[in-house]
Amino acid sequence: MKTSLKVVSINDRAVRDLRYIRETMERAGSFTAVPGWGGVLMGVTAIAAVLLTRGMESREAWFYCWMAEAAIASAIGVLSTLRKTRMLKTLLQGPGRKFAMSLLPAFVGGAILTVVLYQQQLFGLMPGIWLLMYGVGVMSCGTYSVKVVPLMGAGFMLLGTGALLVPWDWAQWFMAAGFGGLQIIVGGVIARRYGG
To answer: Is a pLDDT exceeding 80 seen at residue 85?
Structure first.
């Protein structure tokens, strides 16, 4: 009986081993493509929204302005993250996938609560709920990211709690502090320490 031995090149084996090590490290690593300058820009647009809507008499007009701001900030966040990762594949695998999947439930929950609050005309609860749910999402996804991200999430949660306990006019300043100031500060830290 004749058996054949397959000869494996040392180069082929080394390439396979390196690929395995690289893929394992990618899955275990942290997601560092959180947009720094994108976060700063999101903060700037939020401050502009606060200044635009603060004196509005109509809560409906206030709501629609903030829905537009949410769409703009979301587009900035997604595009700047894609720009920083430079590849969609990086975002959809390993830590990037975990980051996105832990962020999404809080954002979907916030959207559902927003619809319910709008239907019930409970505009006064929206600033606190938005800050709180954004903080929950950011804190959750921060477990797969750099250390400053979960700290930012905790800051948003504190601001959201405060916004739920103060009058409407003050809640607007809590939104400015969170979606504006905190986003700008942490975005700047991320840009300086982790790039773009």
So the answer is: no
